[in-house]
Write a structure and sequence with these properties.
rod-shaped, mainly alpha, 0% strand
């Protein structure tokens, strides 16, 4: 067998390099042809539209999550209000609305007219109405009540039981108390 010459080896290497360049050139030509450019542009448009749709979906998802959180907060707040209303309804003897209305009525009356009328009310009603009135109006009405009536209301407002003092009939002085 004969040994290849350097010239023959050089030509073979040169042919291999030329083939590699030709193959690379054909892929570049295909990419720069009208069909290749059209395909590339279509793929870019599709990618852009897909990205825009993904952004829209992400924004919608965020809006839905925010709406769900807001609705959950509103439901929780309504449940708390209903629980508080139920607790108040169980704790009070009757509805608070009549007492609120009475408080407004007695506050608008002149104290010298309201005091005697207020004193004739049941002690529990006096206490409920007085707690719903402004302090100044309550004080003016109490000033126009009898001392015993004012004391009874004061004790009821303080949350203490009213102890009636024994009435001294026929005697000018009460018996001295032992200390």
């Amino acid at each position: 067998m004969t040994r290849p010459t350097r010239l023959l080896l050089g030509v073979a290497v040169l042919a291999a390099v030329a083939n590699a360049v030709a193959v690379a050139a054909t892929t570049d030509i295909a990419d720069t042809s009208r069909l290749g450019v059209s395909l590339r542009e279509a793929a870019a448009r599709r990618d852009t539209m897909t990205a825009a749709e993904k952004r829209k979906l992400d924004m919608r998802e965020q809006a839905v999550k925010a709406s769900e959180a807001r609705l959950a907060g509103q439901v929780r707040q309504q449940q708390e209000q209903q629980a508080a209303a139920a607790k108040m309804a169980q704790g009070s003897a009757g509805p608070a609305v009549p007492y609120d209305n009475l408080a407004r009525i007695y506050q608008t009356m002149k104290p010298n007219r309201a005091g005697p009328i207020f004193e004739k009310l049941d002690l529990e009603v006096q206490r409920e109405v007085a707690t719903r009135m402004r302090e100044r109006a309550t004080a003016q009405i109490m000033a126009n009540m009898s001392p015993n009536g004012a004391v009874a209301l004061s004790m009821a407002l303080a949350g203490r039981r009213v102890v009636a003092a024994p009435a001294a009939k026929g005697t000018a002085k009460a018996a001295p108390s032992a200390r």
